[in-house]
Amino acid sequence: MTNTTSFPKGFLWGGAIAANQVEGAWNVDGKGLSVADMATYKPNVDNKDFAAHMHVTLQSIKEASEDKSDKWYPKRRGVDFYHHYKEDLALFAEMGFKTLRLSIAWTRLFPTGEELEPNEKGIAFYENVFKEMHRLGIEPIVTLSHYEMPLALAVKYNGWVERRVIDDFVRFANVCFDRFGKYVKYWLTFNEIDSIHRHPFTTAGIIQEKSAEGQEAQDIYQALHHQFVASALVTKDAHEKIPGSQVGCMLTKLMTYPLTCAPEDVELTLKKNLENNFYADVQVKGEYPARIEKDLENRGIQIKMEEGDRKTLKQYTVDFVSFSYYMSMAESADPNAERTPGNTVLGVKNPHLPSTDWGWQIDPKGLKISLIELYDRYQVPLMIVENGMGAVDTVEDGKIHDPYRIDYFKAHFQQMKEAIDEGVDLIAYTSWGPIDLVSAGTSQMSKRYGFIYVDADDEGNGTYNRLKKDSFHWYKEVIETNGASL
Ligand code: BG6
Q1: pLDDT tens across 116-167, in order?
Q2: Looking at the 3D structure of the chain, how many domains does it have?
Q3: Is 113 in the pocket of ligand 1 (CB under 6 A)?
Q4: Position 117 in a domain
Q5: 451 CB less than 6 Å from ligand 1?
Q6: Is 486 within the bounds of a domain?
Q7: What are the pLDDT digits (tens) for 235-258?
Q8: Is the pLDDT of residue 1 over 80?
Q9: Could you tell me if residue 5 is inside a domain?
């Protein structure tokens, strides 16, 4: 143990949650249905098969919309943060959180996305949350869109494929700035904007059956373009409306290594990593990289742009880059190379790394490499806004011993420290799911990330009581000493 710390004074330590994975209260106080309310818990599907878990069809959406219960829809229940927020925020404050990343459910404010005026009851909920955070000295980092767009927009317009959704989103974002701007300085526009390719419905409301045959990729890039434009427009609005506000993009950092040093492996790996950077390239540098434009041309994909779009992207770029980091993977030219799942990706297995029970490869060094690479590439402050390990926890005599989680975090924090020592401007770290929540990928409760345990199972049984795990006390000390206890 050393007594030194590299973390800068004022470093924002905290945790991250998303409305649809914690709030519950899916049909309360005027909230409309969101795409997250369609996600079913599938007990008989292999937990490593994220694609099957996240798959929806027109028929499954119809059935889910008609089903008014939450039995098979855990995201409708979350962990009932809607009614427990004071208790949960108090626990975060007890751990010493300087910040909490959370999202605003679009459908609490605009139930179908097309209303012209917001639902005041939805506004009141978030106002209360922000007031309480302010009282506790917890700085909010707010995601405007985290996998929870109005279902009505998905069904009517195939989500972000239609340009008009930009206007609906800009209206929603502006209400957030007007009503919550006095509490919120840090904003993120789209959670893991790159994930549109991996789960288009969750990310952008795209129902694949609605795309004409052969047009699936075209629709995805069109929707992505609309999100880029919307992100730029609301960045401008936030800056104009909230003095001192900072807006960031948010990407899934999917670090990929070549399985071998064979040039073919290295080339494929380079392409993967460049593709992963494309989204931040647009949002930080304000333009589509030439290689992406060429690739789209080669694939016959033509993004419809309106006059002024390129100028908008160039003019209203983000202030910082935020990203999630859970795992890394390898790449190989050998089609038979062994594969393993990661965060909604199937990568080549790296023989040097251990994996979680869900197959995600644990790689703390990959976090340092990501930090160095991202800072060098973009030269703007960085935030790690998701990181953590999904694991099964057991309660014994009211206690949860989770040394595996402590080991995971400790190893990642050490790498963050090294990156800061090498000059990276890292300003915040929010662990994913500081309180257990419903998994985005598999809708399980039993895939736990928290420092705080929630007594609920995959089918919603339980008291929903909160219990502190061993890692709660450990993280508290890390924050208290600003990393010197590591
Ligand atoms: C990120 C998402 O990709 O990964 C979160 O932004 C999600 O919403 C997290 O919960 C972990 O994934 P999962 O599938 O384990 O919940």
Answers
A1: 999 999 999 999 999 999 999 999 999 999 999 999 999 999 999 999 999 9
A2: 1
A3: no
A4: yes
A5: no
A6: no
A7: 999 999 999 999 999 999 999 999
A8: no
A9: no
**SS3 labels along the chain:** CCCCCCCCCCCEEEEECCHHHHCCCCCCCCCCCEHHHHCCCCCCCCCCCHHHHHCCCHHHHHHHHHCCCCCCCHHHHCCCHHHHHHHHHHHHHHHCCCEEEEECCHHHHCCCCCCCCCCHHHHHHHHHHHHHHHHHCCEEEEEEECCCCEHHHHHHHCHHHCCCHHHHHHHHHHHHHHHHCCCCCEEEEECCHHHHHCCHHHHHCCCHHHCCCCCHHHHHHHHHHHHHHHHHHHHHHHHHHCCCCEEEEEEECCEEEECCCCHHHHHHHHHHHHHHHHHHHHHHHCCCCHHHHHHHHHCCCCCCCCCCHHHHHHHCCCCEEEEECCCEEEECCCCCCCEEECCCCEEECCCCCCECCCCCECCHHHHHHHHHHHHHHHCCCEEEEECCCCECCCCECCEECCHHHHHHHHHHHHHHHHHHHCCCCEEEEEEECCECCCCCCCCCCCCECCCEEECCCCCCCCCCCEEEEHHHHHHHHHHHCCCCCC
Separation of CA 18 and ligand 1 centre (Å)? 9
439: CA distance to ligand 1 center in Å?
A: 6
Q: Is residue 2 one of the residues assigned to a domain?
A: no
Residue whose CB lies within 8 A of the most ligand 1 atoms, among 50, 253, 343, for a mutation test: 343
Which residue range is the domain that position 73 belongs to? 12-480
Centre of ligand 1 from the C-alpha of residue 206, in Å: 19
Does 192 participate in catalysis according to the annotation? yes
Is 139 a known active-site residue? no
Q: Which atom of ligand 1 is nearest to the CA of 50?
A: 14
CATH number for the domain including 399?
A: 3.20.20.80
